[in-house]
């Protein structure tokens, strides 16, 4: 009787950890996703050109992904996760309310890039810790629950900022108010570190791994994730198109973004359950379905745009839940943070290059944007099929 009780306790502790980290992400996303809804217009109000706005957004994302491999490797080498997590969240979150004090474009741009840098430091460490806990609950369900909580915050944040702007209180008031969820998130980080000082202990014991590299399946999976990322139109471009084509009123664009975040969270829970039952084929199906968002948002009217935004959100939910859940099966626990950091870096570089391509094509032909986006995402399908064939029956991992 002792063993089942022990396993049940381990399962409850793992679920509690996922909920706690998910709550951190909820308030963190309220902070920085709320800010991202207005950073472009805020830079414009300070006198920045469209080129400067694009550079700050693109460079911040690129730096935010490239640095993840560094923080992931350092965490795996030292075995210390919480120091990097605390540093990353501190920089990530408190850069946002400091924007309220930014006197000009240069300071504001530096704070926006710092926010992405902080996210880079903590993201692979958090994902590695989640993968250890999710090995008790099912990787798909664990990452899906976390993503649902994450996207709840990403929905509330932009709506909160939209309400502030509706009251004509201004951008700086919005940034200042976002200090509240930032402080709550940091308090929850401290509580999680105190309650779970060694997140690796949440996972079942695994056999020692002697090899030092990643299997070919891991690199193929990174290629598939990169193709999906490269073909995925950033919401900044989608929102720009909505404004240029006058498909929806500018005041409704943050609401459409909130709808996308809501659909992402809902999809993450459902897809996570399906992943635990059917495996990587769920990743393939979700990726192909989400590819349909591009023709809907760029070629249709307001009704099609709404449907496209929902599909866009489902795709984002899939990328941040089941795509990451599947990654854990390719990487041993001892190198989990390095694996997530490597994947994020490669996918981030592909996303940046793809965004440049789609932005370049947009000025020439919207049809070309749709064609390139669909081609890149559809190309990921045969790569994922190859991964499914090559993936061993007994994968490396927990």
Please, could you describe this protein's structure?
This protein has 398 residues and is mostly helical. It has a single domain (2-199, 212-390), classed as MFS general substrate transporter like domains (Growth Hormone, Chain: A, Up-down Bundle). Helices cover 80% and strands 0% of the residues. It has helices at residues 2-36, 39-45, 50-66, 68-78, 82-98, 105-137, 139-166, 171-177, 179-195, 216-231, 235-244, 253-278, 281-291, 293-299, 302-320, 322-327, 336-362, 366-390. It starts with a helix and ends in an 8-residue tail after the last helix. The model is unreliable at 1-5 and 392-398 (pLDDT under 50).
**Low-confidence parts, pLDDT < 50 over ≥5 residues?**
1-5, 392-398
Q: Total number of β-strand segments? A: 0
CATH architecture: Up-down Bundle
Q: For the record, what is the CATH homologous superfamily label? A: MFS general substrate transporter like domains
Quickly give the structural class: mainly alpha
Shape from CA axes?
Answer: globular
Instruction: Indicate the CATH topology.
Output: Growth Hormone, Chain: A
The residue fraction in helices comes out at over 70%
Regarding CATH, which class? Mainly Alpha
First-last Cα distance: 24 Å
Mean pLDDT reading? 83
Please write the string of helix (H) and strand (E) elements. Answer: HHHHHHHHHHHHHHHHHH
Domain tally: 1
Strand content: under 5%
Q: Helix segment count?
A: 18
| Biggest sheet character | none
